[in-house]
Amino acid sequence: MTVSRRQAVREGWLHRVAVTVCRDERGRILVHRRSEQLSRFPGLHEVVVGGAVDVGESYEQAAARELAEELGIRVLPRLLFTFINRSGLSPHWLGVHEAVVPDTVAADPDEVAWHGRLTEPELRSALLEWRFTPDSHEAFSRYLAFRTARS
Predict the structure, then answer these.
(1) Do 81 and 147 meet the contact criterion of CB atoms below 8 Å apart?
(2) pLDDT tens digits for 15-48?
(3) Of 52, 66, 32, 65, nearest in space to 94 by CA
(4) 47-56 residues labelled b (16+ CB within 10 A) or e (exposed)
(5) Using one digit for the tens of pLDDT, what is the confidence trace for 71-119?
(6) Which of 1, 30, 65, 135 is the most exposed place for a label (fewest CB within 10 A)?
């Protein structure tokens, strides 16, 4: 049986979400503020770009599709790890990717109200001062732990 993400969230069923931490050539991380018109977390900031994984789609395919839809870029993100995230609206498998993205992006105004790039120290401060989505906090802390463990 196939259900929509909306129904999976409403029923509390596990579903899959693919997100990407977007870095530029200098290592700065793309951060954006969600459009006020979005139904989930309007106006909150995010450290990741992503969305639901469709039936029959891999995490990598979904992450690449979401980058094209939301930022107008075509890159192949690299899947780093997956985990069950319980910090959002409902539990979901979260596939966390990383990609180096160009300096110029064409953000979809229906999805992205503002975007900018922050260094890791700037982002750590912003996470304490700005309002971010629950996925952003959880995914970014695990992303940093993953990178530390690999170095």
Answers:
(1) no
(2) 899 999 999 999 999 999 999 999 889 999 999 9
(3) 52
(4) bbbbbbbeee
(5) 999 999 999 999 999 877 678 899 999 999 998 999 999 999 999 999 9
(6) 1
